Amino acid sequence: MKTLIAYSTLTGNTKKVCEAAAKAFENVEVLEVNEVKNLDYDLIIVGTWIDKGTADTKAKKFIESLSNQKTAFIFTLGAYPDSKHAQDCIEAITKLFEQNNNKVLGHYHCQGAIDPKLIQMMKTKFSPDHPHGPNPERIKRWEDASKHPDELDLQNAYNYFKELKIDY
Prior knowledge:
Elements: E1 2-7, H1 13-22, E2 27-32, E3 43-51, E4 54-55, H2 57-64, E5 70-77, H3 84-98, E6 103-111, H4 116-125, H5 136-145, H6 151-163
Parallel strand pairs: 1-2, 1-3, 3-5, 5-6
Antiparallel strand pairs: 3-4
Helix pairs in contact: 1-6
């Protein structure tokens, strides 16, 4: 089985997770989405960072170029992986794939460090009572996110894709 893992990354988090997942496959190419030249693969996995509740612009454009493919996806986000926001992201990205008759076989996600420029912008632009403002709970989440993806996240990505059942 020939597998492509195409990713978009801002801070390097998503790339790390995609490279860990790639170790689960024997015949795999790992490329940035803008480096992909063809779609002749048995499985296409797309890695993305979360921007406004869905795949970032580069990954979204790549996903929209796929049709009738067997797919999976990986994402990193600043929110906690078990949060409602993470669940909403799963649903939004799944819909992106399904719009063009792609079959989504699975997904993996974990927390990832937030771009420090984005945190700085939120600290200066928003008040603590704003949904993205620097209140104590949000600052703790930002600090927690700065420690991810960690070795356990990477091992879990590998394990997830090692166990993914792909029907041919």
